[in-house]
Structure formats: structure tokens, C-alpha cells
Amino acid sequence: MTSHEQRNHQLLTNPLVNFKQPKRRAEMVFQKRSSSEMESCGGGQVAEMPRVPKSARGKRSVRKKEAQSPAQMSAFDLLATVAGKLLDEGVGSLGNMSAGASALAACAKDVRVKQEQCDEEMKQFKHEVTDQDSCNESAILPHIAFQRAVNNARTEDPKAKSEAQDKESSMISCTKAELGCNFGVIADRWSPESVESGAFTGDAVASLMPTAPAGFHKNAPEMYNLLDSMDVDAKPPPLVSSDSTGEMPLYGDKIHRSTSLPRGPKGVGGFAVDRDDDDDKSSGCTHPSTTTNRDFRSNCTAEYSRVRKLLTSKYRKVAPARIHKSDLSYSDVERKPSFRNKKMHYTRQRTQRSTFKRRKLFDRHSVLASEFGAANGKGSTKVTGRDSHAEANKGTNSMPFQKSCVSNDCHVKLRIKSFKVPELLVEIPESATVGSLKKTVLEAVTAILGGGLRVGVLHHGKKVRDDSKTLIQAGIGQDDMLDNLGFSLEPNCTQNPQVQVPEDISFLETIDTTEPLARIAPADSCSKHGEVDVSQELALTPLAMNYQGSDHDSVHSPRGVSSPDKVSTHSRALVPVPAADPNAGAVVPANKSKRSPEQGQRRIRRPFSVAEVEALVLAVEKLGTGRWRDVKLRAFDNAKHRTYVDLKDKWKTLVHTASISPQQRRGEPVPQELLDRVLAAQAYWSQQQAKLQPKTPPLAEARLLT
DNA sequence: TTTAGGG
DNA sequence: CCCTAAA
């Protein structure tokens, strides 16, 4: 017996992967093709669908390669330099935030399955969970194991469930404490516990409180490790919840679809969907996590370029979007120009950028994020910086404060005690996951940064507008300085000049921001499906699915968009959670809205997460390898960035990956179990195809079924 | 548009 | 991921 045959055999005999089994109702329900088609596909055949003549092809190539115009490089580049620090210190961590809580909530989407379907699937499900636990635990982070335990508990024993949950809570707390950094979304009225568990109610406002304990840099590596774990743990949100909750109905169509993946023990289906969600919003920019993540200490150059990239992309795609005049103190108009005219400034900016870039990098290390207070509602980020990099900036004119003194030695040393992120209004559909909420917030923040942040200086509460004044002239630098000096982040309306400002400002100082920056309305952030409707409900509330099981009620009343005030009133605390979520890995800013069809750009790379892989495997096991469109619909319907071609390609690589030694594999490791399934499925479907080939379709089928 | 493969 | 020939 060849290995293939063995696998195949295994496949056929394994209850969990038995292709012989006729399709079940559940599947039928989700199938988009007609039942008749299904029939014909039963054996893995590719259903015959009327295809569009290829006549309609052809524009692709044309639009494809357009040179990137400098215009595309944005003011962002410049800002990038400036924001680099922020990103690295604060936002960066945001980018890395783990999907943690998000994952928890993810399951919500998978809910809404008909009871019968659930029942049916559930049996299988339980088996799988058990099975997998035993199989992969060793290879999985404890967190995952834990999660699973929770999941299992939930599906089975109530006691165990609560126990597990408690455990979870404590774990999270610990982790959080350890990290000293946390990034989360807190809804008003939320209790810390609820946040932890991912149960939300009411409006969620997000305030960013990126904080990192002192010494963050030093411990960066360790921190990341922790983060990673967190991420992981977040992932496996249980689809299980499907059974319950009456909330489901609230979610639209999207949910329905997600349901199509009832099986995943880990909520794979939900996952994939989830991620999509998040991803969808992203315009394709690189997620901070991807960019900024792990070794930000590495070399400056690399670092810089990463940041730059990040910003650049954001600029291009994200920035402008979602800024509502109504919420801004400055007019929309003001802001837009900066984006539109980017071209004009590009040259100059770029020059500047290069100039600043290095300096920035150097300064960066000096910034330390301090621990900040709580999420009481006022999210504030406190950053304290010790070293004064004033020297570094001496030559710069635009930076009054940094240069501090007029002469030699009198450097003004500043410490950023608080860095409040201007109000951000984020609107996100209820069906969105916590993870996506985080991403949205992140995007909002980065969009702002990218869009051009300007730093304002406040002295004794008054804005110091004259940039040409020296600190001394402005009265800054006295002893009382620290108490009376404040910084604020402001939208950089005018494209130009401000740019420099940021540069100079090394974010060493304290920045108190109070001005509302922008309102972010992830318009189409949702998928095109039914979500649109949601827009009306625009709840700022992220709902956490019933991860907990009980707090459904939390689901909340959707809020109209019109409740900004309320929002602002609420606490928006961002609990800083620095998590580097591998899966989330690519947290990308969303705003595709703005995304101009600047085609020609190669899509950003978005590595498949394990969850996605699992979803893919699951779908292929059921549908076969020749129906990528169906696979897409089934498992990645909400992942707009995953095309059937992508899935097909991914499968191709998976098959390849599975056939090479683990040492040769790269990227996020895919559980062997999944790879085995890939090979099994591949073998099986290949065989099916072969059998059909000859001419005995029916017979082949019959034989198999025997 | 979707598949299937090469790049 | 991209690009394309085919279907």
C-alpha cells in the first residue's frame, strides 16, 4: 500500500473524515449551488456551471501595472517618521494586539445555526474536539489548551464551564499584569471582568491607552512571547455557542453564512469569517503587527522602512476615510486637502523624511511607555520619556520644545505623562468581533497618525502657536514646565508644514490630547452581504459573543450613529493589550472605502492563519479540490480578500507543505494534524477525480459507497 | 467568471 | 500572489 493509499484508506475509515458519507443536510443548507448540482458533485466532480465566455476578459492586464506614482507616497512618509515612535511604542503594540478577546467573540458569528443542524454537527464536533485536544495539545500553547477546555466545558458540563471561565479570567488578568500592557475595548458599563471575558454590553468606545511598562524595550522579546501566547489563546473561540443564544437573530446574513462551518472545533468557521471581517475593513495595509511586531529593536533601517511602509500604505488607502466633519473641530475640508495634494508635497516631504528618519529612530529608544491608569473611561496613554533627545534635534527649527534651550546646555527635559488619543469614534457592526473592533480602533488611530498628526503645544493651558518662538520665549522651560506644558495631537489639516512638526517632536514629551480627531465610520467595513443593514444599527458596541454564555443580554441595543455624545461620554478605554497576534497578524487598517482602485498594486500578503487553514481544510474535505468557488463561499465568504484563486493556491501550498519535512516549512507552523488532513483530502479527491475521468462516474461512486 | 497551472 | 489559457 502506498502511503497515499494508506492515507486514503485512513480517510475513508476515519469517521471524522469520511468522504463517503453523503452530504448532510447542514451542508445542503449552505450549499449555494442547486441541489441537483450537489448531486452531480457528490463524487467530487466539478459541477457544470454555465461559464461565461472568456470574451469578457481582458482589462485586467491593462489596469494591472501602473507605475506607482509618487503621489502614492504620501505625506505619510513624512509622518511616518514622526509617527514612527508612536507606532513603535504605542500603536505598534496595538497592532500586535492579540486577537485575544476578539477570538472569543468570534464565535458569535457562527451561531445561528438551526438547531437540528447543530445537533447533528455537534456530535461530530465533540468528537473532534476531543480528538484534537489529545492530538495536538503538545504542540499547542497552553492557552489554546485552556481555551479548548473552556469550550468543551461550555458544551458539556456547566460546572466545568464556569470553572474554566474563572480560570480564564484569572489567566487573562495575569497575563495582562505581566504584560503591563493591554489593549482592549471597553464598553461603558463594562466591568473589568466582562471585558476580560469578552462580554460586552452597551456601547463600546474605544479609547486607546497604549501603555507599556517601563523597560518595555528591554524586555521586548519576552513581552512578545507573552503576547504571542495571548494571541493564541484568543483564537479558538468556540463555535459551539451556536446552540444558544437568542442573539443570533440579530446578526444578519453574515452570520448565516458563517454557520456553514459548523464543525470546527475551534470555531474555524467563525474564525475565518471573523478574520475576514477584520480584514475586510482593512484596506490592505499592512497590519501593524506584521510590520511592527516582534523585533522592533532590530536595526533601525529595517525598522524605519517598516514603519514607513506601514504609514505609506495607510496613507494611501486608509487615511482620509471616515472622517466626519461633524465630529471634527476642523473641517473636513481642511483635512482632505492634505491627502489630495499629497503629490505636490511629496517631493519635499520625502526629502524631509529622509532627513528625519534617522534621527527619529534614534530617539525612539528613549521613549518609555509608562503604565497608565486605568480604563476608567478616559483612555489616556501615558508615555514617559526620560532622555532628552533635545540634542538630536538641535538643528531643527520646527521643534521648539525639543530644542529646548536657546543655548548650549539648557535642555528642557520633558516627560510625557499622558498621551491621550483624541476622540475616536468608531462605528462597527454588532456582528463584528472584538478583534475586528480592535482592528478598527487601531486603524482609526493609525489612520490619524498616517493622515497627519500635528502636535500642539500647550503652555499653561494655552496653545502655543508660534513655532518660531523659542522655548524660553514662550516661557517654556521653567521649573513649572512639566506642570504647565502639555502636548496635544491634532489633525494635521494643512498638509504641509506641519509635517515637520511631528518630526521634531519626538514623542518624548508629554502629550495631552484632547481634541477630537476623527470619527471613524467603517462604512462598508462590513462585508457586503447583509451587513449593510447593520449600518443602521451602527452600534458602537462590539458584541462579544456569548463567549461567556450568559451575558447575552448584553447585546445591546444598537445605537444609532447619532449617539456620539454618548460615546464620548463613555469611557473609552483602551486597554492596551499588546498582543502580537500571528493570526491577526495582519491587522490592517480598513477603510477600503478610500481605497481607490489604484490597482496595479500587488495585494498585500496575508498569510493564512491556522484557523483559516483549518477552515479551508474543512471545506475542501467536504467539497473537494475542484470547487474553489464553493470553498470560498462556504468557508471564506466573508473574507473578501481571499479569492477562490487564493484558496486554491493556498491549498496547493498546503499540499506542498505537508509533503516536506517540518524543518523546511516556514511561516506560522500549521498543525501536523491539519497537514495530514490536507494530504488525506488531496489524495482522496485526486482519486475521485481520476475515477471519474475514465468514464465510470456512477460506478465509481457506487463502488466507493460500498 | 471559474478552473487549473505555471511563474 | 500574480498571470493566463481554457472552459
Write the layout of secondary structure elements.
Elements: H1 3-13, H2 25-30, H3 35-41, H4 60-64, H5 75-95, H6 100-110, H7 115-136, H8 142-155, H9 158-179, E1 183-187, H10 192-197, E2 204-205, H11 220-234, H12 253-258, H13 268-281, H14 288-292, H15 300-318, H16 332-340, H17 342-364, E3 367-369, E4 383-385, H18 390-393, H19 400-403, E5 424-426, H20 434-452, E6 453-459, E7 462-464, H21 471-474, H22 481-484, E8 485-491, H23 500-504, E9 518-520, H24 531-537, H25 564-569, E10 574-576, H26 610-623, H27 628-635, H28 644-658, H29 672-692, H30 697-705
Parallel strand pairs: 5-9
Antiparallel strand pairs: 1-2, 1-10, 3-4, 6-7, 6-8
Helix pairs in contact: 1-29, 5-15, 5-17, 5-20, 6-11, 6-13, 6-20, 7-8, 8-9, 8-11, 9-11, 13-20, 13-26, 15-17, 15-20, 26-27, 26-29, 27-28, 28-29
The structure holds a DNA duplex (7 and 7 nucleotides).
